Amino acid sequence: MAAVKPKVLVLGGCGFIGRYVVCELVEKQVCSSICVVDKVPPQIAWLNERQSKVFADESITFRSANLINAASCASAFGEEEWDWVINAAGETKTGQLQKLMWEFKIEKILAINLLTSIDPS
Q1: Rounded CA gap, 10 and 62, in Å?
Q2: Which residues, including other chains, have CB under 8 Å from residue 48's CB and lie 6 or more apart?
Q3: How many whole angstroms from its chain centre is CA 71?
Q4: 28: how many CB neighbours lie within 10 A of its CB?
Q5: What is the CA radius of gyration of the chain?
Q6: Residue 21 in contact with residue 90, Cβ under 8 Å?
Q7: Is 60 helix (H, G, I), strand (E, B) or coil?
Q8: What is the spatial distance between Cα 36 and Cα 52, in angstroms, rounded to a whole number?
Q9: What is the pLDDT of residues 77-114, one digit of tens each?
Q10: Does residue 2 sit within a domain?
């Protein structure tokens, strides 16, 4: 009997790291389905040819959400249950070390929003 492949939610799936995670999951046929959540849709995310092909796969769905916003974050998970949740969300800002503390604050807010969305109690 074949093992059931997991359903995966990839937060920040159109970002610099997330897009490569999605490519690996699809190309290695690890998952039954993948839901990519990002504030930037794949159509305008500057995907390369490989990534564009992968994101066109029928196993992938996309949800638009800005995970810094609590209400938007809650909608990212939807009503479905996920076997895996991969958090690749974050901002890519090279050469801006002076904003490092601000980025830590944003990442903390993002983590709080994610955890609250999973279990509001």
Answers
A1: 10
A2: none
A3: 16
A4: 8
A5: 15
A6: no
A7: strand
A8: 13
A9: 778 889 999 999 876 666 555 555 556 566 666 666 66
A10: no
